[in-house]
Amino acid sequence: MATVIVALGSNIGDRQQHLVDAKSFLADFSSSEITVSSLYLTEPIGPATRDFYNAVVVLTTDVKPHALINKFKRFEAEHGRANDHPKWSARTIDLDIIGYDDLVIQTDTLIIPHREYEERLFVLVPLMEVCPSWEDPKSGQTIENLIEQAPAMRLEKTAIHW
To answer: Which residue is catalytic, options 51, 62, 81, 102?
Structure first.
């Protein structure tokens, strides 16, 4: 069984419901109870104009990394995410693999840890909440160091129970 860290985001439609649906989807194939961060309201990066809801989920699974990303892409498509939109555009749901045990993978179809995550407080802060001792398998940096080095952005922990 592998421990998998997944970053979730949504800024179109019922953002909270999209994340609730994604949490349920992730729980369905986790072999143990999932761990869920708080829900954060964050400013968009790039051309998107509406704030995102972001969170992190930790699960355990025997689904291999490439099969897992394919499951994520199918789920995103089924929930209205188009693959032909520009980078950083608005989306109903986004599921990114931040960690899969201590693997480092870089192929044409999959990069783990997900690229640029270390510059995104909307990933790092919820990740610290659920995995405070996590270290980047590529650089060996602690989550605390990554947060200190990340560019500032507006990030608000919500009181929403999802």
So the answer is: 81
